[in-house]
């Protein structure tokens, strides 16, 4: 089959919206946890609550906006306007600091309670617009604009962006976080997101999708939950099940990853902490790996590319769990991070390419709600809580390490807990593969 060629504008739009969107999500999913902990002394369970509520809002937003964009046959307006409003909502966080709240409330305990509450509420508001623009419409736009001859390569690029975003955030914004200059970080982040939204009006090419004038909006919202939809697209739902279990494993450690690196590595080496110097090369290698690995999907298919990437991730998690002493085994922590990040991104690329291939082309937006349940809601409702449980107990390291302000212990237990979830993912993926293959054989026999 001849590969469908995509335009330069497509790739420019893909990179800008995927990258800028991921930069915003990286700050929310990784640095908001550090922010709320250091600025307002939030516990690990309050962090888990914030992540879980955000996941619920993301799911609702994706369900509503995904169905609406399908009904109207439009993606561009939702993506661009959504990014602009998303950026404006991020600006609100520049006001939420201890110094700002202390001018209104003098009691330090009340400042902590109010600060945690405001951050959680506005995180949900920000997610409402961000998920509608990115999870519902941008993801639908990528599916609309590609086909089964080029999705593996496109998904390889798309899946590189979270790690490149981490690299940018660590390299360009981490110093503001380390110095407690949170407003500057949020203002820069908001400006980038708004800029992407404005630019999108000029570079995004609206895909040709059929406008569903005769469809019923509220019925469309629940289309993916109908038994007939599940039966007709059972392979899609099996891959989404794999995505959900995989996502749980990722969220167990990802929620607390920055905190772990800060307490498990030596102190500052100039303007940036050692964890940045370790993560930067690991991220670059993982991004390059994902770019080339994603192309293997187009050649070898789903299961033959998923299992190796999950095994690579498992090896990285095991190394990070074993070599957990503070300030020691830096080389092994780098190697563990490299394998963990490479396997994580590679697996994400393969799973998302599989989902795009199995999503009915006439109902792309209708299935985004189901996808977000598997990708965001289930993992973020379960993973962070498992991570919080894994971290519960006495401080593992010298308490001097926590002088910077974490109100909960941070240790390598998150990696062994994540490893268990990834091993379960591997087992279920293999079982699902053989189940689907057996069902295909039975269907062929019935047609004879």
Give an account of the 3D structure.
The chain is mainly α. Helices cover 77% and strands 1% of the residues. The protein is built from 16 helices and 2 strands. A two-stranded antiparallel sheet has the order 1-2. A hairpin with a 2-residue loop joins strand 1 and strand 2. Helix 1 packs parallel to helix 6, helix 6 packs antiparallel against helix 12 and helix 13 packs antiparallel against helix 16. The radius of gyration is 22 Å and the shape is globular. The two termini are 27 Å apart. About 4% of the residues have low confidence.
Any key phrases for this structure?
mainly alpha; 2 strands; 1% strand
Radius of gyration from CA coordinates: 22 Å
SS elements, strand count: 2
N-to-C order of helices and strands: HHHHHHHHHHHEEHHHHH
Estimated share of beta-strand residues: under 5%
Helix content: over 70%
Major pleated sheet: 2 strands, antiparallel
Count of DSSP H/I helices: 16
Q: What's the rounded overall pLDDT mean?
A: 81
Structural class: mainly alpha
Question: Uncertain regions: pLDDT < 50 for 5+ in a row?
Answer: 268-272, 394-404
Indicate the overall shape. Answer: globular
Distance between the termini: 27 Å
Widest sheet: strand ordering: 1-2
Task: Describe the protein's topology.
Blueprint: H1 8-40, H2 44-72, H3 76-91, H4 98-102, H5 108-145, H6 151-178, H7 182-203, H8 217-221, H9 227-232, H10 234-254, H11 257-264, E1 268-269, E2 272-273, H12 274-300, H13 302-322, H14 330-358, H15 368-391, H16 413-447
Antiparallel strand pairs: 1-2
Helix pairs in contact: 1-5, 1-6, 1-7, 2-5, 2-15, 3-5, 3-7, 6-12, 6-14, 10-14, 10-15, 10-16, 12-13, 12-14, 13-14, 13-16, 15-16
């Amino acid at each position: 089959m001849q590969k469908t060629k995509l335009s330069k504008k497509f790739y420019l739009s893909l990179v800008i919206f995927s990258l800028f969107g991921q930069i915003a999500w990286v700050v929310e999913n990784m640095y908001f946890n550090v922010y709320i902990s250091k600025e307002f002394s939030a516990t690990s369970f309050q962090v888990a609550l914030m992540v879980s509520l955000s996941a619920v809002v993301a799911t609702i937003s994706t369900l509503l906006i995904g169905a609406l964009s399908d009904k109207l046959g439009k993606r561009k307006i939702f993506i661009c306007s959504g990014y602009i409003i998303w950026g404006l909502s991020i600006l609100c966080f520049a006001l939420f600091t201890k110094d700002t709240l202390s001018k209104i409330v003098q009691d330090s305990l009340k400042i902590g309670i109010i600060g945690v509450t405001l951050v959680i509420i506005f995180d949900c508001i920000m997610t409402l617009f961000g998920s509608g623009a990115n999870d519902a419409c941008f993801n639908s736009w990528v599916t609309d604009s590609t086909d089964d001859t080029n999705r593996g390569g496109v998904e390889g690029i798309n899946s590189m962006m979270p790690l490149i975003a981490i690299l940018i955030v660590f390299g360009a914004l981490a110093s503001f976080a380390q110095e407690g200059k949170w407003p500057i970080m949020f203002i820069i982040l908001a400006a980038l997101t708004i800029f992407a939204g404005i630019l999108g009006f000029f570079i995004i090419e609206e895909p040709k999708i059929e406008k569903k004038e005769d469809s019923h909006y509220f019925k469309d919202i629940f289309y993916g939950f109908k038994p007939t939809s599940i039966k007709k697209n059972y392979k899609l739902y099996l891959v989404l099940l794999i995505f959900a279990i995989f996502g749980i494993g990722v969220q167990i450690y990802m929620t607390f990853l920055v905190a772990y690196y800060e307490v498990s590595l030596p102190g500052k080496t100039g303007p940036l902490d050692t964890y940045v110097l370790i993560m930067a090369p690991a991220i670059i290698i993982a991004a390059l790996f994902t770019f080339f690995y994603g192309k293997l999907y187009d050649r070898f298919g789903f299961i033959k590319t998923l299992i190796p990437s999950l095994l690579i991730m498992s090896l990285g998690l095991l190394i990070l769990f074993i070599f957990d002493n503070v300030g020691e085994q830096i080389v092994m922590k780098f190697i563990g991070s490299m394998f963990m990040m490479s396997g994580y991104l590679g697996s994400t690329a393969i799973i998302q390419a599989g989902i795009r291939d199995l999503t009915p082309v006439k109902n792309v937006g209708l299935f985004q709600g189901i996808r977000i349940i598997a990708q965001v809601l289930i993992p973020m409702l379960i993973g962070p809580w498992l991570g919080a449980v894994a971290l519960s107990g006495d401080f593992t390291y010298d308490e001097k390490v926590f002088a910077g302000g974490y109100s909960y212990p941070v240790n390598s237990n998150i990696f062994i807990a994540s490893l268990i979830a990834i091993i379960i993912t591997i087992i279920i993926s293999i079982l699902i593969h053989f189940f689907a293959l057996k069902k295909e054989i039975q269907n062929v026999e019935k047609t004879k």
